[in-house]
Amino acid sequence: MSSPAPRPASRFPVPELKDLPADIRERIVAVQEKSGFVPNVFLALAHRPAEFRAFFAYHDALMEKEGGLTKGEREMIVVATSGLNQCQYCVVAHGAILRIREKNPLIADQVATNFRKADITPRQRAMLEFAAKVALRAYEVGEADFAALRGHGFSDEDAWDIGAIAAFFALSNRMANLTDMRPNDEFYLMGRTPRK
Amino acid sequence: MSSPAPRPASRFPVPELKDLPADIRERIVAVQEKSGFVPNVFLALAHRPAEFRAFFAYHDALMEKEGGLTKGEREMIVVATSGLNQCQYCVVAHGAILRIREKNPLIADQVATNFRKADITPRQRAMLEFAAKVALRAYEVGEADFAALRGHGFSDEDAWDIGAIAAFFALSNRMANLTDMRPNDEFYLMGRTPRK
Amino acid sequence: MSSPAPRPASRFPVPELKDLPADIRERIVAVQEKSGFVPNVFLALAHRPAEFRAFFAYHDALMEKEGGLTKGEREMIVVATSGLNQCQYCVVAHGAILRIREKNPLIADQVATNFRKADITPRQRAMLEFAAKVALRAYEVGEADFAALRGHGFSDEDAWDIGAIAAFFALSNRMANLTDMRPNDEFYLMGRTPRK
Amino acid sequence: MSSPAPRPASRFPVPELKDLPADIRERIVAVQEKSGFVPNVFLALAHRPAEFRAFFAYHDALMEKEGGLTKGEREMIVVATSGLNQCQYCVVAHGAILRIREKNPLIADQVATNFRKADITPRQRAMLEFAAKVALRAYEVGEADFAALRGHGFSDEDAWDIGAIAAFFALSNRMANLTDMRPNDEFYLMGRTPRK
Amino acid sequence: MSSPAPRPASRFPVPELKDLPADIRERIVAVQEKSGFVPNVFLALAHRPAEFRAFFAYHDALMEKEGGLTKGEREMIVVATSGLNQCQYCVVAHGAILRIREKNPLIADQVATNFRKADITPRQRAMLEFAAKVALRAYEVGEADFAALRGHGFSDEDAWDIGAIAAFFALSNRMANLTDMRPNDEFYLMGRTPRK
Amino acid sequence: MSSPAPRPASRFPVPELKDLPADIRERIVAVQEKSGFVPNVFLALAHRPAEFRAFFAYHDALMEKEGGLTKGEREMIVVATSGLNQCQYCVVAHGAILRIREKNPLIADQVATNFRKADITPRQRAMLEFAAKVALRAYEVGEADFAALRGHGFSDEDAWDIGAIAAFFALSNRMANLTDMRPNDEFYLMGRTPRK
Q1: Which of B109, B124, B163 shows the shortest CA–CA distance to B140?
Q2: Which residues in chain C have their CB less than 8 angstroms from residue A142's CB?
């Protein structure tokens, strides 16, 4: 039995590049030049330019800042919480980024399915426990959770970073599930062969 | 037994107005002049200026746009999903705004506790059912949920609005619980006496 | 869009005072004289006189007895567990009583939404953790939970009080949701201005 | 390995009959004469005479009244919801009563474990679906649930009965788990051989 | 109102003994000769001979082997996890075996409803806590859970036994619920009178 | 930060091939010759030869039989339910097999994360809804679920297959999480480039 035709990038209308405001078009073109394709999250969210701008400003503020977490660790938080939220787009797209950042072709599938069984350090495991609690039961987060992070050498600013990334992808995962956002075919194979 | 001292605005450092970037200070001063006080969400998030800017840009894009939902209905979505997420700051602060927008001193407590029992229209009830599903089980949202909204006269653009507001407050509620954000005392009494 | 007409006190028939047995009528008249109105729980439950008598006898046995818990603390238990059970009537009505008992206009909304973030003492927080466990997972309550209460100076008789109040409002919350019991308009504003 | 000594009737002090108020002692003696033993719920709750009186008045108002449900059906509701609430005392004690009322030695174990697979009528199955919803998610009970009962010939007064029994045993199950109430050995074998 | 006719052994076709492969027929006849009746699990699963053979080979490998757990303790694990999985067939059938193995007419109903309140040793309680975690949240099982078992004198081989029995009955309980497997009437009364 | 050393195949002792019973060694050698490596599930379960034999006999009876489901569809059931059970070994290993069976490099990650958003047919979606219900809430499976499958052309024998595969992997997923079974590195890249 043959598979059905792939879904479009979004269940909502997807704008053409030429119809977009210049700043959005430029951001998309820059991503395309760097990656070789336009990730569907850009096309799906461009349907709403004001929300697009805020979304990516927020994303960059959390994912590209300096701080106590490596870029790879930030992606671990994204992939682990997106797995718990059953968000296909974010698991596939950020899984690719995580593999590349960590130069580890196995890490994304491990973290997405069950971070407790991943080949990560105890410190990273504690980081993901905190992130998972923010993702699933943030109303129970309290002093004991911050203390547990401190026990692994995380500062309270690191705790903000961990929690804020989990919180931002609580939004992002819900937008992807709302819009039926489809991961681009390109992501699946990225970073799956170890770097030399 | 006397109550303990009230918590501060946030468990993280709260900046002084004079130390903030000009654009953030100006936004805060404008809110203060309009409302008579500075809601703690501005102080708590100003600890991270880049995140502050993105957060409020996103908020305004969803809550102040034109569209098929009234401003009161948008606040209903905020209050209902924040109740489900056990977010004290958002229930208290947006409850105040909801009472004012709807000129209804009872609506916020009704919607926050159990929207299924609130004095709202069947159309608004369907709107909140959709929002609650995005808040709690977005991975199950599908065509049948959009069809249910259409049956109440909502367009698919309205569905985006409903879902996106629920998604944005999934982020906001988690940030408030992460930072122990405290609702200002002023919110509790706002809008509790009917407008003449 | 105007709000729909408010719901009646109950989805079941509400008796007229003159048709009620004398003892029930007298209790209701006494409440009316003291409060200035008849809380809808009296009207909704008077539909079944025998159940009415048992309900209020049980209520009084728990809420008006002497013991290690203040009357305000008992109301905290009611409001916290009713919030977890999404019971609009009990959150609104007992929220009013809690504000009055504690002379604190903020406490009810804090406790109803997320007791872990309320301006209460660590002892009261432990009390509400125990009550929440009885409300949601009583089958897991065991020796460790009693020991935690003892660590905050509660006797085992206090533990019975805490657990029994949570258990009684497990009943009460279900009756309110079953009957669509509507909180009276009067409750919403009671106790919202601080006592001098 | 031999089993440990059986637990006492309650983790709280159990009064001696001679020390109880006359009305409570008389009720207990009457039960003892009829049943041949004193069910532990009487001893455990007699620790608090005012609560004892209200509890049994409520119990009798619901379980011994006239109405559209047979006494056996009322016990089905008790056993099904007590199973969902993991309440050992009520499953064992009311399981015995259910077997006797229905003259069916199999019914209690079936209903306690999974009422959907029990040898009951479709009407009784609908009754237990309603009761289970009141027990576990009363905040979602609404018009559609009442309509489903009407489709099986239940009146709205019957719906009150079903819901109120589930609500009362929400209380009762929590008290039993709070007090570690132990089912008497006598219950286990009662009604297990079919009546001739 | 009379009860409906009892359900058949399975919602799927039940083969006649004479139509079964010889090895399966022999096993069934042997059970029948020992027990006096054919437990319905044999008839229901015989619909698929290859699955039947694997199922009982697995069952015997876990339940009849030597090791640190008594046969009664193995049945406790079956009954406790089958109760949590709401599996009527396994609670009733293995409840009977548990009563016989432990020579204790009360143990099965206690463990099936709430193992935390059963008359068992602290060691057995720890065993059932581990089994319940494997049954309900196996993805969270980790080193701390093994350490807790070791603290009660269990070896890691015992931990495998406990977890594997819980895992096998995760399968068995699902097959029983899938096939509407009906417990034989004979099980209900077995082992209910103490052995002399 | 470098990743920690990879976990071993199992937290339990892993036997050497030469020490295994002949039939088990032969099966493992056959797999090794066909696949080029020994999947860790064979090594981890060989610690218990009797359980090993029953496990693979059961697996083969379900996964290699004739019937209304394609081999690819059977793997979809494995991957979807293993994702819901957060089982890393089964998602990674059976994800590889699913990609190969379906000649589709994208399908496994889609189905593992959220089968409702996968590029599959409505009939396959219905199949996975049934499987997910067996995996998570088998006690609620009933006639309506079988009827839904029939509406998509599945026979009741197909329903047994779907449910039995979900049930067998309820066991398998729990064994993998119990033993900390580690997916072999080889699985991650298998089937990720489309067949010509």
Answers
A1: B163
A2: 116
